Amino acid sequence: MRLRVFTGWVLALLAVCAAQAQDPNFSQFYAAPLYLNPALAGAEKDPTFAAVYRSQWRSLGFPQQIGQFSGVLPFASRKRALLQPGGLGFAIYNDLSGEGNHFRATGIQAGAAYNLAVTKDYTHVLSFGLQVGLVQKAVDFTDLRWGSQYNAAAPFFGFDYTASPTFTTDALRERMLYPVVHSGVVWHFNPVERLIDRSFGGFVGFSVSNLNRPEESLVRGVSSRLPMLMRAQAGFDVEISPLLRLMPNLLWMRQGSSQQVNVGTYLSYELQTRNAVDGRVMAGGWYRLGDSFVASAAFASGRYTLGVSYDVNTSSLRYASRGRGAWEMSLTYRMPRNKTARRFATPLI
Known about the structure:
The protein is mostly beta strands.
């Protein structure tokens, strides 16, 4: 009963106060490249499909669940084999929260990226990306209970199903559909095929989501525009030994008055059998400043990469979540066009 009351109050506050909403995010941000930066559609060399699922705050009884599925189709150049002209990409996500998943946000986006060679040997490339889409946010009022429907007098001493809520749902919209526009740029070093020196690679990127500041209010007559979400990314791929690589990364995000910084690294170890690489295992640790630690692990074999991660809260939120954080799973499928090509290894796994 208390959970239902809590859910009702949360949804009411979200709607009535027209709060500045935040876009969902993933701890395995590198496994959701198009969500991270639309320009990364130009960095992937192979047709690629990826799925990410996140579940958090299960201790509350109604965890928030976020899922995304994305795909990238890179362009090929017949005249200049080393230069990849760009790529197309799409992404679909679904965000569920509240008891009974009463609050839903669903989005679909599609875009393209264009690659510009900075040097003649194509070791330095700039990728520019643009993405457009539609997002729908909806609230299901069917099973919600409001505070004004609880009666302390006999014969109810609790929820009175005959009482009408003082806060009527006529003032609210059940759903809101709005367009979104995202853009980004990424500089990446060492993305060429058959590269002899594989000791170092890197990237720096910046993206802005919600460029059009769409109206997202579920309250009639009340305006609430979605703030722009800015992200900056940077990372390196350093060879420690022929089989071991280090991949440190940094992610900075800001939306409205909220800011988030992720710092961490991956260690990647290649598995070999008779001088052939059969796959690799990866393990990493991340720290989301002032919020949580993230432990990650992944295994790649052939065309598949499977990743798992778990967030451990370090902020005061750990008391509300009873020490239970968030876990994620990711699955990536690639269709290699050229097995000798040097892959853009970071932040993609």
